[in-house]
Design brief:
By secondary structure, this protein is α+β, with helices and mostly antiparallel strands. The chain folds into two domains: 1-96, no CATH class; 99-215, Hotdog Thioesterase (Thiol Ester Dehydrase, Chain A). Helices cover 32% and strands 27% of the residues. It is built from four helices and nine strands; from the N terminus they run βααββββαββββα. The mean pLDDT is 90.
Length: 225
């Protein structure tokens, strides 16, 4: 059974990847600032119209050469991962938070500290519940991978105990147990003061195609996010 998606292997050096990340990461950060400024600005309508025209001109310049479809995930021959389009951690995705996730492979654990600004609002001044689920899904998947049993999300159950104010937050997840091809992960989201606002449990499943790949002579577990 073939994999439902492909991972490309690119002939890029570490220096080339670093240069690419620096240039496009800076562009993405600038667009993130623009996104928040677009939401929060109180300048007059004439200024907004002038900015809109400038944004459209800049967008047209970038649209002159684009990849077809989504960015996907690729690897360099040196093992560097280019998951720049990821909706949570993507270096080139201005919609991403982004998260800087730290893995502890010995403990099967992953954690992140991050900022959720006005773009992620649900109730006034509070983080949207769907954004919480998005963030935790990524951190949980990273914890499963850190524990040596990467998988795709089967279920993710959240319990919203308290509101999560916009601003500084943190998340942590850890492998609780394994059951065959399933990895059960638990974790939580915290406010800036350390108060737990959301707890969750997820099941991450090694898909059939990956199991078949692993069963092949010399097969290794696939690495994906």
């Amino acid at each position: 059974m073939a994999a439902p998606f492909e991972y490309q292997v690119l002939d890029l050096t570490d220096d080339e990847v670093a240069a690419e990340a620096a240039v496009f990461g800076a562009l993405t950060d600038a667009v993130r600032r623009l996104n928040e400024a677009t939401l929060r600005t109180t300048v007059d309508h004439d200024t907004v119209e002038q900015v809109r025209q400038q944004v459209e001109e800049l967008t047209a310049r970038l649209e002159k050469s684009m990849i077809p479809g989504s960015f996907g995930v690729s690897f360099t021959k040196g093992g560097r991962v280019r998951s720049y389009g990821n909706a949570v951690v993507g270096l080139r995705n201005p919609l991403a938070v982004p998260l800087k996730i730290v893995q502890d492979k010995e403990a099967g654990r992953a954690s992140a500290e991050f900022e959720l600004n006005a773009l992620y609002e649900g109730p006034p001044g509070q983080v949207h519940g769907g954004v919480v689920a998005l963030v935790l899904d990524q951190v949980f998947g990273e914890a499963a991978a850190a524990g040596g049993t990467p998988g795709m999300t089967g279920t993710l159950k959240l319990r919203y105990q308290l509101n999560t104010p916009l601003g500084a937050c943190s998340a942590a997840a850890w492998v609780d147990r394994r059951d065959g091809v399933k990895t059960i992960v638990k974790g939580e989201l915290r406010r800036a003061d350390g108060t737990v606002t959301v707890t969750a449990e997820g099941i991450f499943i090694l898909p059939r195609w990956a199991r078949e790949q692993l069963a092949e002579p010399g097969g290794t577990p696939p690495q994906y996010e």
